Amino acid sequence: MPKFFKWPISFQSRSHNILGKSLFWLGSAQIMGRVVRLMSSIIIARLLTPENFGQIAIILTSFELICTPLRRLTTAALIKLSETDFIKALPNANKINWASSITAFLVMSLLSFLLAYYYQSNHFILPMLLMAISYLILPFGMLHVALNLRQNRMRIVGRAVLWQTVIDGLLTTILALIGLGIWAIIIPKVIVTFVWLWIHRYQNPLPSQTPIHTPNLSPALPVTHKTEQKTAYSTKAILKFGIPVGLSDITLAFRQNVDYLLVGYFLGVEALGIYFFAFNASLGISLGIIQSYGTALYSHLCQPSQETLQQKFRLSLKFIMMLTVPIIVLQTSLAPWYLPLVYGEKWLTAGALPIFIMLCLSGLVRPLGEAVSQFLLSNNQAPLNLKANIVLTLLLVVCISVASLWGLQAIALASLICYFITLPSFTYFLIRQQDKKISKMGKELPNDA
User: Fold this and answer.
1) pLDDT of residue 232
2) Comparing C-alpha atoms, which of 2, 97, 63 is closest to residue 250?
3) 373 lies in which domain range?
């Protein structure tokens, strides 16, 4: 039997069974939620115009870029801390969460006026101010999320994702049918933040005195002296670890959303609406699974097991590729048939089909970027992850900027080519570098070791 078909046998280790269960809860929640969102998007696509979609794309992209560094600014550090340091770190982490959330609220509010001035439209101000309120809700649940991730409670994390998506989709559908326009998408985004908060806080009190039982996690944040280990829970230590992670995440989010910004800048709001529709219709389900994979993978890699970090990374990467590739291939092959049938002929007339297909195909390699990022972060190489994401983002910006001279289809093609070249190359380079390090360490060991 070929070697390729033997890897699932080794995948049956306890640690990978945990990852499989984690991905099952998160992935199934994403898929079921996406089914509801698909039904909602069918109605939205028939009621709203490409210009409406363009406005929504700008608002949601702005919100996502500002929110992204908040999610793991303290959580990534808390997951890696020892039980005792985790409890001591909670007050400092809470202060950081509140300071960053208030800052995000102010940035989003200011940005709403800047966008209104740039596009000469006041339609951006009130929706963005309303969405900015969500930032002030986050600190009430961020520590509880960290606790759930530390204890590998992916069932609860998945439940939060599922109910957020379901309620968001149902409310969006109802409000759209009433005729609220872009408010039908904006208002539910704020409401589901309270759903997220309640699910993560329900029967999940934060520890105060006695350390809680958690799986054997890796020691603490990377330290070089014993004196530093005693202060691993300090505000400075949390920020020292969290800021590179937050910057890496925002760089990754910027790379995933930069095409929206450039399409809107070069081609206008209506063209952005067509691109935004094609992107969400094509990559909605696969990106949901990939994001769930990233969430589960980081917690998985931070937990010690019989496998090395490199072994867990490789097996996990094979697992997600075998899951996502068939879905994307099937979706791409059926696109010419179901796109006009489900969403309406107007999107076919607008030229969304070739853009849909090319963006869908780009999803074949996107798991590679997610896996490499989580590997580097779990291996205390956040600065390298940040540099890599910056380089990849700059390459994508250059490709899209040049392609914008020839329109939307050229942008989608440029994005596809850029992803197909950069992500596999970077993944291969990382694996080779890690193999060289392991080989070098093996040669340096004494013969009788």
Assistant:
1) 62
2) 63
3) 9-206+233-437
pTM (2 d.p.)? 0.70
pLDDT digits (tens, 9 = 90+) for 47-56: 777 777 778 8
How far apart (Å, rounded) are the C-alpha atoms in residues 192 and 163?
8
Query: Considering the domain boundaries, does residue 219 fall inside one?
Result: no
Asked whether residue 217 is assigned to any structural domain, the reply reads no
- How many domains, in total, are found in the chain? 1
Helix (H, G, I), strand (E, B) or coil at 181: coil
Which tokens is 275 given? 């691109």
Rounded Cα–Cα distance for residues 17 and 153 (Å): 14
The three-point CA angle 274-277-279 to 5° equals: 105
Q: Are 73 and 293 in contact (CB under 8 A)?
A: no
Long-range contacts (CB closer than 8 Å, 24 or more residues apart) made by 10-14: 10/315, 11/315, 11/318, 11/319, 13/305, 13/306, 13/307, 14/305
- Per the domain annotation, does 445 fall within a domain? no
How many C-beta neighbours within 10 Å does residue 370 have?
22
pLDDT digits (tens, 9 = 90+) for 123-159: 888 999 999 999 999 999 999 999 998 887 878 887 8
Residue 222: CB partners within 8 Å, gap ≥ 6? 241, 380
